[in-house]
């Protein structure tokens, strides 16, 4: 009798270990829902990217929920505001992991914020897909549970400067960057091409973050005789620079980086913005893929959210699709370990908003394909340059 | 030479905006003895309201101007009545902290009420470029310089000749004696908040016209504050002129010493000036600093 009871107990324990512990051990999952957490800047100027990225996550989640959720479980999105303040990002991530007890993390604020929060993510072991600000630190060296969808800032700048250099051989160059980690990355990328292609740089400026008046900077640019200009601002800075350039009656060939490749910017730049080049790894909204994405998004978000869609919505959408697909592949009882393993197996996942996404054993960075686009002031859109 | 003149004109234009906001700081300080750390945010809110009027009601310059002024008056009065008046008699430090809290709330309000996207204020004028001897200037920039000069003259006359202006000076000098003379300090405070909101709001609207409207606009307050320290925290006219000085210094430093020097030049000048005149160029010696 005792033998039978022992055998039954062992059998039950084994069964419990095989099925039950997954639910008990990994938080954020019940019989009916799965929680996905995110911390973004939802207030202040960087809300432009934080809100847009969160809308992308919401679209992917709404799409999955409309199709029945993840193997029958509805996805619930837990979103915290960090106001682009690093201390608040850390606090927010700890809160969604420890208090809200989410199953996976997505997005996560700007580059400095995601770097700062990395020890928290690593220590917790929670499956995470970062999509807002891809910087090398996030995947070099690869962390077991952290995956990054996108392309590095440095590679983006190298691609853009190479393109502009090939198109404008022998021309004089000007560059202005912001005095922070973003600006340093832009400058590093630029300098590597300058060295390789022996570009003639006649103006190199470095403005303080938050600067709003660029009159003296652009006057220096004009005075230097620069013919090709890399505007290393983010959004408002690039607008101010282009308006100054218009005022000074000069028209250098201008390149901007993807954080500023947002369609409303063109309206504000006016005629000065016509023909500027940009680099990005997501599809322009003026293209077929972009239009299809907007059509898909329209019924899934509110009118106000629809107006807030920009390129960051696409990066957020793509990352959420990859995460949801990985959890889904884990079947009825997903665990962190399984989700991480499935994320690693991600191979050529089509999202419709960027090139197919892949990770691999030890590969935590999707290394998206880049494309050059050119602004059309008439249609206020960016179009791919072939 | 053309390079220098272009730097000076651009410096005067941005300096005039700093000057208007700096005057807003000084009007409140002169009347209430308080430094309003929400000045930049109040400037931004008025500019956003002007933009809303231009996009929803009418883009006519007079409609936008009138609407923005009324909104600024209302904003100043509401803040004074609901936030500042209950703090009367409380320690200065606590009151200053309240203005810092107010600044955070107003800053966040932009995203809740409007959005994080930059917007252009289009009222059919101010954005055009005129060339004066080969130097390109936006008409809005010329207008803001003229507006600052007109306001400087008007405010000088107001404080010197009008009964209300004299009453405001009396409350600033000694509010208890002013009360004994039949002057209502609370009314003077309310008027000061409304006037400050309007003057700084004009600066904000001109900034939106010449540059753009964005949630980062509150930082204008951080640039204008040194202007009012330079001109004198209790000197309304001095603060206006301080703005021009900061604008010119910034642009000359940026143009001749490099981009990185632009943002620090104004502050460097303040340190030097305050070492010589701790109460500012036009300020009165006997003032309490916070």
Helix/strand layout:
The complex is a heterodimer of chains A (386) and B (290).
Chain A: H1 2-18, H2 20-25, E1 33-40, H3 47-66, E2 74-81, H4 86-99, E3 104-107, H5 111-124, E4 128-130, E5 146-148, H6 153-167, E6 172-178, H7 181-197, E7 200-207, H8 215-224, E8 228-232, H9 236-247, E9 253-256, H10 263-269, E10 277-280, H11 288-297, H12 303-307, H13 311-329, H14 336-344, E11 371-376, E12 381-384
Helix pairs in contact in A: 3-13, 4-5, 6-7, 9-10, 13-14
Chain B: H1 2-32, H2 39-56, H3 61-84, H4 92-113, E1 129-132, E2 135-138, H5 139-161, H6 163-173, H7 175-180, H8 185-210, H9 220-231, H10 236-257, H11 259-276
Antiparallel strand pairs in B: 1-2
Helix pairs in contact in B: 1-5, 1-6, 1-8, 1-9, 1-10, 2-3, 2-4, 2-8, 2-9, 3-8, 5-6, 5-8, 6-8, 9-10, 9-11, 10-11
Mean pLDDT across residues of chain A: 90
- Tell me the name of the CATH class of chain B: Mainly Alpha
Report the β-strand fraction of chain A as a percent range.
Answer: 15-25%
Helix content estimate of chain B: over 70%
Quick take:
The complex is a heterodimer of chains A (386) and B (290). Chain A is of the alpha/beta class and 386 residues long.
Task: Give a written overview of the molecule.
The complex is a heterodimer of chains A (about 375) and B (about 290). Chain A has helices at about 1-20, 20-25, 45-65, 85-100, 110-125, 155-165, 180-195, 215-225, 235-245, 265-270, 290-295, 305, 310-330, 335-345; strands spanning about 35-40, 75-80, 105, 130, 145-150, 170-180, 200-205, 230, 255, 275-280, 370-375, 380-385. Chain A has about 375 residues and is α/β, with parallel strands linked by helices. Chain A folds into 2 domains: about 10-150 and about 290-370, 3-Layer(aba) Sandwich (Rossmann fold), CATH 3.40.50.2300; about 155-280, 3-Layer(aba) Sandwich (Rossmann fold). Chain A has a 7-stranded mixed beta sheet, sandwiched between helices. A 5-stranded parallel beta sheet of chain A has the order 2-1-3-4-5, with helices on both faces. In chain A, strand 11 and strand 12 (about 380-385) form a beta hairpin. The longest helix of chain A has 20 residues, at about 45-65. Chain B has one domain: ABC transporter involved in vitamin B12 uptake, BtuC (Orthogonal Bundle). Chain B has 11 helices and 2 strands. Chain B has helices spanning about 1-30, 40-55, 60-85, 90-115, 140-160, 165-175, 175-180, 185-210, 220-230, 235-255, 260-275; strands at about 130, 135-140. Chain B has a two-stranded antiparallel ribbon with strand order 1-2. In chain B, a hairpin with a 2-residue loop joins strand 1 (about 130) and strand 2 (about 135-140). In chain B, helix 1 (about 1-30) packs antiparallel against helix 8, helix 2 packs across helix 8 and helix 6 (about 165-175) crosses helix 8 (about 185-210). The longest helix of chain B has about 30 residues, at about 1-30. Chain B is globular and about 60 Å long. At the A-B interface, helix 3, strand 7, helix 8, helix 9 and helix 10 of A face helix 1, helix 4, strand 2, helix 10 and helix 11 of B.
């Amino acid at each position: 009798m005792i033998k039978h009871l022992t055998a039954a107990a062992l059998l039950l324990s084994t069964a419990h270990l095989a099925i039950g512990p997954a639910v008990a051990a990994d938080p954020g999952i019940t019989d009916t829902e799965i929680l996905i957490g995110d911390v973004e800047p939802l207030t202040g100027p960087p809300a432009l990217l934080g809100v847009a990225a969160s809308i992308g996550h919401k679209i992917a989640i709404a799409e999955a929920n409309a199709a029945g959720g993840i193997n029958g479980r509805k996805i619930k999105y837990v979103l915290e505001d960090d106001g682009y303040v690093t201390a608040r990002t850390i606090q927010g991530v700890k809160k969604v992991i420890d208090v809200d007890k989410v199953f996976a993390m997505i997005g996560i604020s700007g580059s400095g914020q995601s770097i700062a929060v990395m020890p928290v993510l690593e220590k917790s072991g929670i499956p995470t897909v970062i999509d807002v600000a891809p910087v090398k630190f996030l995947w070099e060296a690869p962390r077991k549970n952290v995956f990054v969808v996108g392309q590095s800032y440095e590679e983006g700048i190298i691609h853009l400067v190479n393109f502009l250099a090939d198109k404008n051989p022998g021309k004089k160059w000007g560059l202005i960057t912001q005095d922070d980690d973003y600006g340093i990355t832009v400058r590093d990328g630029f300098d590597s091409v300058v060295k390789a292609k022996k570009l003639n740089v006649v103006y190199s400026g470095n403005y303080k973050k938050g600067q709003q008046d660029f009159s003296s900077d652009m006057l220096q640019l004009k005075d230097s005789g620069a013919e090709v200009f890399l505007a290393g601002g983010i959004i408002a800075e690039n607008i101010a620079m282009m308006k100054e350039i218009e005022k000074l009656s000069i028209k250098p060939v201008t390149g901007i980086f993807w954080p500023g490749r947002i369609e409303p910017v063109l309206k504000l730049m006016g005629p000065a913005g016509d023909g500027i080049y940009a680099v990005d790894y997501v599809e322009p909204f003026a293209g077929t893929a972009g239009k299809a994405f907007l059509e898909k998004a329209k019924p899934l978000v509110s009118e106000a959210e629809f107006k807030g869609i920009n390129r960051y919505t696409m990066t957020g959408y793509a990352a959420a699709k990859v995460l949801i697909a990985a959890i889904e592949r884990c079947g009825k009882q997903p665990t962190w370990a399984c989700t991480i393993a499935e994320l690693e197996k991600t191979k050529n996942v089509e999202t419709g908003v960027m090139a197919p996404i892949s990770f691999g054993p030890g590969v935590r960075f999707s290394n998206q394909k880049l494309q050059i686009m050119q602004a059309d002031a008439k249609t206020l859109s960016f179009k791919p340059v072939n | 030479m053309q390079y220098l003149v272009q730097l000076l004109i651009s410096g005067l234009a941005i300096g005039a905006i700093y000057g208007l906001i700096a005057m807003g700081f000084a009007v409140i300080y002169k009347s209430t003895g308080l430094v309003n750390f929400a000045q930049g945010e109040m400037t931004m809110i008025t500019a956003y309201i002007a933009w809303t009027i231009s996009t929803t009601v009418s883009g006519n310059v007079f409609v936008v101007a009138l609407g923005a002024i009324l909104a600024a008056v209302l904003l100043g009065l509401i803040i004074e009545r609901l936030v500042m008046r209950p703090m009367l008699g409380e320690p200065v430090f606590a009151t200053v902290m309240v203005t810092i809290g107010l600044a955070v709330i107003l800053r966040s309000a932009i995203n809740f009420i409007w959005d994080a996207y930059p917007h252009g204020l289009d009222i059919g004028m101010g954005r055009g470029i005129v060339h004066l001897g080969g130097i390109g200037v936006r008409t809005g920039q010329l207008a803001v310089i003229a507006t600052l000069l007109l306001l400087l003259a008007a405010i000088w006359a107001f404080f010197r000749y009008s009964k209300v202006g004299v009453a405001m000076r009396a409350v600033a000098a000694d509010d208890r004696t002013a009360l004994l003379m039949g002057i209502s300090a609370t009314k003077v405070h309310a008027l000061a908040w409304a006037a400050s909101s309007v003057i700084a709001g004009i600066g904000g609207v001109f900034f939106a016209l010449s540059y753009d409207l964005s949630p980062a606009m509150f930082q204008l307050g951080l640039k204008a504050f040194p202007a009012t320290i330079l001109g004198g925290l209790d000197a309304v006219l001095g603060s206006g002129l301080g703005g021009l000085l900061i604008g010119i210094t910034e642009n000359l430093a940026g143009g001749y010493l490099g981009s990185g020097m632009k943002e620090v030049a104004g502050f460097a000048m303040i340190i030097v000036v305050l070492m010589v005149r701790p109460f500012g160029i036009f300020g009165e010696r006997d003032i309490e600093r916070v």
